[in-house]
Amino acid sequence: MNGVCVFGVTGGIAAAKATLAVSMLVKQGLDVHAIMTESACEFVSPLTFRTLTANPVTVDMFEEPGQWNVKHVSLAQRADLFVIAPATANFLGKTAAGIADDMLTTTVMATRAPVVIAPAMNSGMYGNPIVQRNIASLKALGYMFVGPESGRLACGDVGPGRMAAPERIVDFAMHALHGRGRPSLAGRRVLVNAGPTREPIDPVRYITNRSSGKMGYAIAGAAAARGAQVTLVSGPTNLPEPEGCALASVETADEMYQACMTAASDADIIIAAAAVADYRPASYSCSKIKKTADDMCIRLERTRDIVAELGQIKGARVIVGFAAETDDLLVNAQSKLVSKNLDIIVANVVGGERSAFGSDENSVTLLRPGLEPEALPAMPKLALAHEILDRAASIIRK
């Protein structure tokens, strides 16, 4: 995705990790421009960021007096996205108070781009009521926050205050960029389920499927970045928790059913992206089943169809389902759309070279009652998540 990202770096040991986030944003296709405070330069050289971004790094607001443009205004106007990582308590305090006394705070004050802030500081500072008040004030004004995480800090303390992992920062920042100018979901409650389920055979073996959970996690992260209160019910995955979501981890289809039915009670939008097992072993062996010379047969029984049951009690909720098919894609998807009383079904091919399982991209067709199928081009799942949310938001507004 093309666009301009202004990346602010303040003075803290986490400035070293910020180089990884900048590199990832460049790989996403963004034109990244770094602004460093003088304190940040004590931890990382401006040359490092200049090398990573292939752009000049700004530190002093008055270092290029010969330029015709006012640089802080120029960068603020060009920015499609603004990220500050790490963000110190000092930066948060000045920004919350409207103080603009260096290049970074001045540019942040002038921008209209979405601003993503990744705090990093000593746990005592982070827990200080003044810092918490400043964070709350900035959130109320629309500034978005990633982290911090808990763990061992550079000072030796253990607790909250460690800058979020670069992957988390970049993922949320890209959601903020994709969500710019799209319908807000502030005040809405969104339930997303994701990933596979595991149906145990014995203490060692289970039945599962190839779902990676990437699509559901992308949708959950996108909804959170657009202001929704998100509950993510997830089967086992290797994915980091999306920022701003309440995660409920489950394993079996029955556990996912219980969690989804509970969370659905006050949801405005339900997006069922999980690949829930249709069958489970009819009986469970408490001991490992030993190998014998004979073939082994496992009797299976049906699991409950979560999205179909939600469709029966839909009410005013918008429900989006998924149809993963190996053949007769549109015919099978249309049948599910009607039989499960869905508002949208996302149909995609699985198996072969076009399989969506485990991929970072997907090509889908959206089906809605009374409308022609809408085929979307192949795109990253992060971008597709926002397309799906756009359609769901248009229905709930009506």
Protein model, in words:
By secondary structure, the protein is α/β, with parallel strands linked by helices. The chain has two domains: about 5-180, Flavin prenyltransferase-like (Rossmann fold), CATH 3.40.50.1950; about 185-395, CoaB-like (Rossmann fold, 3-Layer(aba) Sandwich), CATH 3.40.50. The chain has 13 helices and 21 strands. It has helices spanning about 15-25, 45-55, 70-80, 90-95, 105-110, 125, 130-140, 165-180, 215-225, 255-265, 305-310, 330-340, 380-395; strands at about 5-10, 30-35, 80-85, 115-120, 145, 150, 160, 190-195, 200, 205, 230-235, 245-250, 270, 280, 300, 320-325, 345-350, 360, 365, 375, 380. Strands 12-11-8-13-16-17-19-20 form an eight-stranded mixed sheet, with helices on both faces. The protein has a five-stranded parallel sheet with strand order 2-1-3-4-5, sandwiched between helices. The longest helix has 17 residues, at about 380-395. Mean pLDDT is about 90; it is low at about 65-70.
Number of domains: 2
- Describe the strand arrangement of the main beta sheet, using strand numbers: 12-11-8-13-16-17-19-20
Under CATH at level 1, the class of the largest domain stands as: Alpha Beta
User: Structural class, from helix and strand content?
Assistant: alpha/beta
